[in-house]
Amino acid sequence: GGGLSAFFRAVRAAGANRVSLGLQSADEEELRLLGRRHTAADAARTVRDAREAGFQNISLDLMLAVQGQTPQSLKRSVEFCAGLGAEHVSAYLLQIEPRTVYWARRKELRLPGEDEAARLYLLACSELERRGYRQYEISNFARPGFESRHNLNYWRCGEYLGLGPSAHSFLNGRRFHFPRGMAAFLNGEPPVQDGPGGGFEEYAMLKLRLAEGLSDAACRARFGRPVPERVMRAARRYEPHGLTSCRPGGFRLTPRGFLLSDALTPELLF
């Protein structure tokens, strides 16, 4: 509506150049089950308002494996994103976290099982790729040149400063985070030191979230040595299972490997 148009114009004038919107689904029943108050038509109007305010870089979030989702409804949601001309799409598998509405309702929910959730994830990957969105991270897809730069910085183990309660930072080789409560933050309580960061295992764990994976060139630039041969041997072991894709001087996880990354990455690195 008019208020949102004014908001977009104000933040664009302030220097913001990218908008990320929580579409979640283009299916009205899925939105209702997710507890969302907006409709697909509302989302389309919001994207239009952002465009009219001058935003040429818009990202939409989709949720995967929600109650009632089918391959057909997921395809329609992907098509909806492409039809709106979104430059970037993030597609997240639903996770039930403690202290949320879904957690309280978890016993009554009828969510897809693990196998069906995996099929929906792989379908989202293929449908987004088919419409010109290149997968560059486990959950992130973009048209060429519209990858999220701050996301890439995190996954490439770059340094960053987080501001606000609970915000995490990585500066000068050390990780730290601010206190969780607003009062503690406003009272100037010092950040909690989490210790050093940026070692090979941490770097490799983060890089394996990216479609670019690990490479000898990047490892030499950062650590002065190539990808360890023990890691390459492990990667080659999983390639016949369709979980890794090896190349001279490096490897990456496949979409199927991404699905198992929490279990697969330690097997590759340790």
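(ticket continues) Second input and output from the same batch:
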Amino acid sequence: MFDLLKGLEECWSSGRPAVLATIIDTQGSTYRGVGAQCLILEDGRIIGTVSGGCVEGDIYEHAREVMQSGVPRTLQYDFRGSGDLLWGLGVGCNGSLTIWLAPFHPATYPAQAKQLLQVMRLHAASPRSFSIMTVIQSSDAAALPPGTLVALGHDREEGGALHGWGEIAERAAQYRAAGRSGLAWIDLSGSGGKTIRVQCFIHTVRRVPRLVIFGAGPDAIPLVRGAKLLQWHVTVVDHRPAFAATDRFPDADEIIVAPVGTVPPLDVDEETNVVIMTHHFEQDQLFLAEMLTRTIAYLGILGPRARTEKLLEKIESNRKAIGLHPLKMKAFHSPVGLDIGAETPEEIAFSILSEMICARTRRSGMPLRLRKGPIHERTGDLFSSVPLKESV
């Protein structure tokens, strides 16, 4: 996400065109799911991926035409059956993709480019989940052209007004509640009571995952690097100014020096991951006591189980407050990380981050070769409907 935004910002500053490609529908087995995006630049570079590299070359050829015309379009790739291997791109993924190509041309179409850039800025900085609605097809392109963007469920509604668009807002809320993105057909009331039938892509934008690390020791350095590789927002907290320093954590989004015996005010919620690893018993105890009172996605503590038990013995009041032994809480992980035999700080970091991903996606972390059925659940749209007769 941040790489895409950086690319758009650079194009906006230089006036160079680009195209943002988004998967708006899938059928069968595909490498990426609905909502995956990549940015195609004028010089042929591609930031991100929508297929693992299978179709990006072909997408670039279509993107060049979109850059020149300024008109968005949809692409469809069907890899099912042997025909693809013989005459197509040779992917053999046994699935199909529908991709939306949105032009970004600051020099020729500055208003449209600014609209897309503003929505993507919201995507990167939003403190909570919201939706981006894109008009894909419209029965009245003059009144509501394809490519129209609206941010829904956000304090700042970028891209347009929502007069009479209550149904879109309601469906977007349903998609957010289900953690889904997808297509929907909706009838809108235009001027003079005219009905405009539109196909919308409703993209559910989740808040960027957040990681708070209590402890700025050497083992926290690869954990920060790994989290930033995942494009998470990272906060590092420590009581030692020499450790909690930007030269040691140049990638961290926030570094906080908290005096011994204090817990700094932190914006943590049900989408925040927390790891306690100060290697200081009293500090670990302090942070653990505070985090046990919060509703967070993941709470891990570095060290053997026996040490954690000693920490918990000092926090009896919190046990009573939550009404459940912390070691039995789903969000509580001690010892922290997956059992991969990790020993080095780098291996431990991968172990911890992998367990956080498992907790977020509700997956087991077992080898994929042991999984029965598809790797990803590619389910259909929440809202079934009939497309327009005209092909747009």
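Agent notes: Confidence is low (pLDDT under 50) at residues 83-90, 158-164, 384-392. The CA atoms of residues 79 and 296 lie 41 Å apart. Closing as not reproducible unless the customer responds.
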